[in-house]
Design brief:
Length: 699
């Protein structure tokens, strides 16, 4: 069975990712790209859909004789995972990582620390999201003159159609038709290294991986990148507004001012992510866990009862406690750095595309139908990420994201998609996979149908981000400004248009206030490009369009009686997306109308925990029955709003709650089920991590 969502750790090579559970099983791995078919798909099905389990044999004993304890953490500022297993008085350390080099590989090393531990190693190779079982052949190397083979040259090669995997290790497992499994014993000072590499079946298997070299290089690359971390982000003065309908309360955002070189329309080498900077040391304390006896099964598969005791304690309970400012600031700083690392981990180093998550179809409601494939790239996410990477001095990543966006927009800026493939391609298919689903949740999707929806927020977010780049000295080129002009001209036709909101609701379309406000931001960006930066364009027409949108929002998207902006034109309910109105500068953070909107959000959307829902699903507005769970990203937008409008303690309270609900490695899913006390939705998810970075900066 799959583990709880919060019990997984992310491994990344900046082209794809893998999820390894607290129980030692890699249950999700797509190769060679984030959006490729899964090689290990047990996360959304069964063990027969592919996994790689490496753990002490005793941990799978339904009645363990020895006490089992687990401690895990990432090595400082990396995605190199270390798990220390203690079995009675003996212990081993398992180190998992993905090399940051050519190819797609996972490396696992078992190091004996004390005593003697017997390990269980099981690998079930699959392709096509767990559907295809490859033909696996064992090769033992060329025999010597005496007919003996070298065990170090042994390898398993699994092949099916265009796909192939090669598995190597110091203790090769025995073969069965559907899996290979075996045990080996590790004593103090011993190391057993195992590697799995994907390759095209018409090529030769890649050369063996040198463990120390690959490990050191991966650590150096992650740490050097994180060394560019900007701890203090100064703010630029607010630019004056000239939108009569919003009058003196409107401002144009608070872009963070950092020095940056001109970000050119060039791609940097795909495999070099190093920078010249010192590493910043941040550590996270983790606790130990005890495996209690259970008698529900006699197989090597961990049963549900054992799992309840063994693996579901990743999330820290929310405890009201006094803590000094220095300790809290250190915790915030660590959380921001880990979120920046998550952002880097989910940007493809080959294409520059930022995926929303490495997973598909982890349900937003356990057992429900709100299951989506988030292994795609949303224009909105890329734009918001560019603001973050620019503010934190990551010029290379800003250039990669910007260039990816330009290539995606070049598909057809007059028919803008909200979501694209990792390389900027359009994917018009939303498929169903023949998998059982996470804890039975259906459907299991491959592909994303959001491509066909017009989303005003995407258009506005893109143009607002280009405006932020210009404010920070990033010039336009022969491609970037003409594409923006095309977007602006197409936006005129979208004024007052219905869409499905930033949340991509499957119900009937409406005129969402937030979507129209993002069009306002788009036109404002066009006007300032001409008037302040000397670009060519019809600034008068765009200014008229901007003012027209502002007037309509204040007339139909703002309810004077409620003193609140509303979710849809002429409506009476609110939506968490309205928290972005201050972010884009439509109103000031402390504008009375924004303050009133926050009060309505607190009344309508707030869970007793202090987190908020994205919206209340009245009359099945999102196309589904029932309510989804409180949303991490929306809650962190609220925290930022609190912090920037003078409610610092309220903002810190929300931050403390979110940090308490993050897993022991600092990772966040999309949402949280307080009744089940479990994370829900795809994992890890980029929106909460970007929102966390912004909220911490607001502190």
């Amino acid at each position: 069975m799959a583990s709880y969502i919060e019990d997984y750790a992310l491994l990344s090579d900046m082209n794809t990712g893998a999820l390894v559970s607290r129980a030692g099983s890699i249950d999700w791995f797509c190769a060679p790209r984030f959006d490729s078919g899964a090689v290990f798909a047990a996360l959304l099905g069964e063990r027969d859909n592919g996994r790689w389990l490496l753990a002490p044999l005793e941990s799978m004993n339904p009645t363990p004789v020895e006490e089992i304890r687990i401690e895990r953490s990432y090595r400082e500022n990396t995605f190199v995972l270390q798990t220390v297993w203690s079995v009675g008085d003996a212990s081993v350390r398992v180190t998992d990582f993905m090399p940051l080099a050519a190819g797609t590989s996972i490396v696992r090393n078992v190091e004996g620390l004390t005593g003697e531990v017997t390990m269980y190693n099981e690998i079930a190779m699959r392709f096509d999201n767990g559907k295809t079982q490859p033909w696996v052949t064992r090769y033992d190397g060329a025999p010597d003159a005496n007919g003996n083979t070298n065990p170090e040259e042994s390898m398993l090669v699994g092949m099916a159609g265009p796909h192939a995997l090669v598995f190597r290790g110091d203790a090769m497992p025995d073969g069965e038709p559907d899996q290979h499994a075996g045990t080996f014993t590790v004593t103090a000072g011993q190391n057993y290294v195992f590697t799995l590499s994907y390759f095209a079946s018409n090529q030769n298997p890649p050369a063996p991986i040198d463990y120390p070299t690959a490990l050191n290089y991966a650590q150096e690359q992650w740490r050097e990148w994180s060394g560019l971390y900007v701890d203090e982000v100064p703010e630029t003065p607010e630019a004056p507004a000239e939108v009569p309908a919003v009058e003196e309360n409107t401002h144009y955002g608070d872009g963070e001012d950092v020095d940056t070189n001109r970000i050119a329309q060039v791609e940097a080498p795909a495999t070099d992510v190093s920078v010249d900077s010192n590493s910043i040391a941040v550590t996270r304390e983790v606790g130990a866990e005890v495996l209690e006896p259970s008698t529900n099964t006699t197989s090597f598969e961990i049963d549900a009862a054992t799992y309840e005791e063994f693996a579901q304690t990743s999330v820290n309970p929310i405890v009201e406690q006094e803590e000094d400012d220095a300790a809290f600031e250190a915790e915030l700083r660590e959380a921001r750095l880990r979120s920046l690392l998550v952002l880097r981990a989910m940007i493809s180093r080959e294409t520059g595309g930022l995926v929303a998550s490495v997973t598909t179809s982890l349900p937003e409601v356990l057992g429900g139908k709100r299951n989506w494939d988030h292994r795609f790239v949303w224009l909105r996410d890329v734009a918001m990420a560019m603001d973050v990477t620019l503010a934190h001095g990551h010029e290379r990543e800003t250039a990669q994201l910007r260039n990816w966006m330009l290539r995606a927009l070049a598909n057809n800026p007059y028919n803008l998609h909200a979501v694209y493939g990792v390389a900027g391609e359009k994917d018009d298919l939303d498929r169903r996979l023949a998998l059982a689903g996470y804890e039975g949740a259906q459907p299991v999707r491959s592909g994303n149908g959001s491509h066909s929806y017009f989303q005003g927020d995407a258009l506005g977010q893109v143009l607002a981000t280009f405006a932020n780049l210009r404010r920070h000295g990033v010039g336009e080129d022969h491609l970037s400004w003409p594409l923006q002009q095309a977007l602006l001209n197409s936006a005129v036709e979208k004024i007052g248009s219905e869409d499905r909101s930033i949340w991509e609701m499957a119900g009937e379309p409406h005129i969402f206030t937030h979507s129209q406000a993002m069009l306002w931001a788009a036109f404002d960006a066009g006007v300032t490009a001409v008037t302040e930066h000397g670009m060519t364009g019809d600034a008068q027409a765009w200014a008229e369009a901007r003012d027209r949108v502002a007037e309509e929002i204040l007339e139909r998207g703002y309810n004077e009686e409620l003193n609140s902006f509303v979710q849809t034109y002429d409506g009476v309910h609110v939506d968490a997306s309205l928290l972005q109105l201050a972010q884009i500068g439509f109103v000031a953070w402390d504008d009375p109308r924004m303050v009133g909107t926050v009060e309505r959000i607190e009344d309508e959307l707030m869970h007793e925990s202090g987190l908020i829902y994205r919206y209340i699903n009245r009359d099945s507005i999102d196309g589904f029955e029932g309510q989804d769970n409180p949303h991490f990203g929306a809650s962190l937008w609220l925290a930022e709003q609190y912090l920037r409008s003078g409610r610092a303690e309220d903002g810190k309270r929300v931050l403390r709650t979110v940090l308490a609900l993050s897993n022991d490695l600092g990772l966040l899913s999309a949402s949280y089920d307080f009744e089940a006390q479990r994370m829900t939705g795809n994992f890890p998810h980029i929106i909460p991590h970007i929102a966390l970075i912004r909220a911490v900066e607001a502190v």
